[in-house]
Design a protein that fits this description.
alpha+beta, 2 domains, binds magnesium ion, 467 residues, 14 helices, globular, 6-stranded mixed sheet, binds glutamic acid, Ubiquitin-like (UB roll), Creatine Kinase, Chain A, domain 2, 16 strands
Length: 467
């Protein structure tokens, strides 16, 4: 479990007691430097690095970094809100020692995610990881719920030798094809070895639908750990690719048309060690609470899109009939509904039942995405919401009347539309708090303005290598 305690100036007591031993262990393994990572509002992972010898000081006092990145755009230009985007001030980055891991794909380096606090030792209201810790703590305190989550990672593998900015697939075989698996056999084998060495329990790796595309799915953890892990897995995928002269894109639409890269979220609610998505009286074994949680997510999906699909490129991906889940609907194992209920196979229901939220991509800050999706689910629990009827097949086939009768809506088709829905969603705004909520709206509108007038080809190119 991720520690839910905030960092404090001087260091968390437990961390201080063990940091000297951790540092010695890293030095003995030839680790010279540590990457300290967080994700900004736009979805870009930002880092500082320190020599291993500075770990003790970082655990005690943090590492300085400007808060200005909270309103950076993916192209490193800047927007502002009432409180963010100013050149003034500084924050302290505190590594989470429980998550510190030597990087198998980058010999000489270790990695840790950070929480950011103010120089006065207070929570930074723009820190996405702190936000998710707070939401997870609230689920436990107010609802007695423990959540498990996993983030699927899809990525496209391109040739490192391609002309600057261009994507040339490094494999040509078909979707789920043996050809593609063989073409990138050495790369994916080294990737599996690196992930295993870093303690990531991989469920599967497979060649995905689109050109040069792969997917990895990993085991579920508490939500903060799952978000941390999604960064670590991407760092590893990229680093190992580089060693094979490959270049990877996690962008929602690395090409302007066709299937893009998703970052589907898997979630389940537990109480007293029991999975609430299994063994209940409701449909497919859901308990009433699990159903309400799912119904809350479904109800808030239009506003959530501004958080889960945050890039102009996200809307090239969010097209019907491409398994991205662009309709507010749910179904059992239905890949065109935004919410896919997964019961697991006979004999594994209790362990495996969960739900998948599909209109999520890897431009999304995983801490914000998980925190907002969970807040939406908890709102459903508070309101004792129930799910509408399930759907089967592709909702794209419904005419307007049929869709309206079933309560099936197309999710926002553009970033400005998503921001409009987000602004109208009080539950999401209140969960984030005013500072983060304003940052989300300002950064999204900034991204939309930055691509105004660009063609899909240009939008895909603009974000291809950003995330
Ligand atoms: N690549 C699809 C997406 O954009 C998802 C394919 C799948 O269901 O795994 O989300
Ligand atoms: Mg997939």
């Amino acid at each position: 479990m991720t520690t839910l305690a905030d960092p404090v100036p001087g260091g968390r007591p437990g961390d201080l007691r063990r940091v000297a031993a951790v540092t010695a262990g890293l030095a003995a393994r030839g680790v010279h430097g540590i990457v300290l990572a967080y994700v900004d509002t736009a979805g870009v992972t930002r880092v500082k690095t320190i020599p291993t010898a500075r770990l003790e000081a970082a655990v005690a006092w943090g590492v300085g970094m400007s808060p200005v990145f909270d309103t950076f755009l993916a192209d490193d230009s800047l927007v502002t809100t009432d409180v963010l985007g100013s050149p003034d001030g500084d924050l302290r980055l505190y590594p989470d020692l429980d998550r510190l891991v030597p990087l198998a794909g980058q010999p000489g380096w270790a990695w840790a995610p950070v929480d950011r606090i103010t120089q006065e030792g207070e929570r930074h209201p723009g820190c996405a990881r702190t936000f998710l810790r707070r939401i997870v703590a609230g689920a436990a305190d107010r609802h007695g719920l423990v959540l498990k989550a996993a983030v699927e990672i899809e990525w496209a593998v391109g040739l490192g030798s391609a002309p600057a900015g261009e994507f040339v697939p490094a494999a040509s075989g078909p979707a789920y094809g043996a050809v593609r698996q063989i073409e990138l056999s050495d790369y994916t084998a080294e990737l599996l070895a690196a992930l295993a060495a870093q303690g990531v329990d991989v469920d599967q790796v497979h060649p995905e639908y689109a050109a040069g595309q792969f997917e990895v799915s990993v085991g579920a953890l508490d939500p903060v750990a799952a978000a941390d892990r999604s960064l670590l897995v991407r760092q590893t995928i990229r680093a190992v690719a580089q060693r094979h002269r490959l270049r990877v894109s996690f962008a929602p639409a690395y090409l302007p048309e066709g299937v893009g890269n998703g970052g589907h979220l898997h979630l389940s609610c537990w109480r007293d060690g029991r999975n609430l998505h299994s063994g209940g009286e409701g449909r497919y074994g859901m308990t009433a609470e699990a159903e309400s949680f799912a119904a809350g997510i479904l109800a808030h999906l239009p506003g959530l899109t501004a958080v889960t699909a945050p890039s102009p490129a996200s809307y090239l991906r969010l097209q019907p009939s491409q398994w991205a889940g662009v309709f507010t609907a749910w179904g059992r194992e239905t890949r065109e509904a935004a919410l896919r209920m997964i019961t697991g196979t006979a004999g594994r229901h209790e362990q495996d039942a969960n739900m998948e939220v599909k209109p999520v991509d890897l431009a999304a800050n995983p801490y914000l995405a998980l925190g907002c999706v969970i807040a939406a689910g908890l709102d459903g629990v508070t309101a004792a919401r129930t799910l509408p009827g399930e759907i089967t097949g592709d909702p794209a086939r419904y005419g307007p009347d049929e869709a309206a009768a079933l309560g099936v809506r197309r999710l926002p088709r553009s970033l400005p539309q998503a921001v409009e829905e987000f602004r109208a969603d009080r539950v999401l705004r209140e969960a984030l708090g005013p500072v983060l909520a304003d940052a989300v709206a300002a950064v999204r509108l900034g991204e939309a303005a930055a691509v105004d007038g660009l063609t899909p080809v240009q939008v895909a190119a603009a974000y291809r290598w950003a995330y």
